[in-house]
Write a structure and sequence with these properties.
By secondary structure, the chain is mainly alpha-helical. It has six helices and two strands.
Amino acid sequence: MSTAASSRPASGGASASGGRTTKSAKRAAGEQEGLVRSVPKAKVRRARLLVTKIDPWSALKLGFLLSVALGIITVVGVIALWSLMDMAGIFNQINDVLGTVLGAESGNYTVQSIAPLGTVVSLATIVAVLNVIVLTLLSAVMAIIYNLSAGLVGGLGLTLTDD
């Protein structure tokens, strides 16, 4: 090795004498650290809230909308179920079993003649309308009951966080 190479500081910023870093090496390292700073983590904010009152009119409106959606799902589901059962031949199998069990007394009665699709859909619509009325009124009554009980126990405690 030549003497010129041994008198130069090492590439890690340490000098040949004792492995200490020089001021210029510290300054250069500080400037590099200044270019790429880690973002400080924000504190998670928390808010503790109490639900002490539910407006019965708001509960009535929301209950009405949700029960109408449930009514539509009920009618569409009944139509889909009846059609699926008809295409799968389940009604024909039920007719065969009834013919075997009842014999000649079964006559011309079939599932499709007793409960055609129109009758089933009408019944499902009536049930859906009754569900809309009952669930709408029940949502308002439940809001009033909640308001009364929240007056006694203070309400429902919630903790909201900001993630």
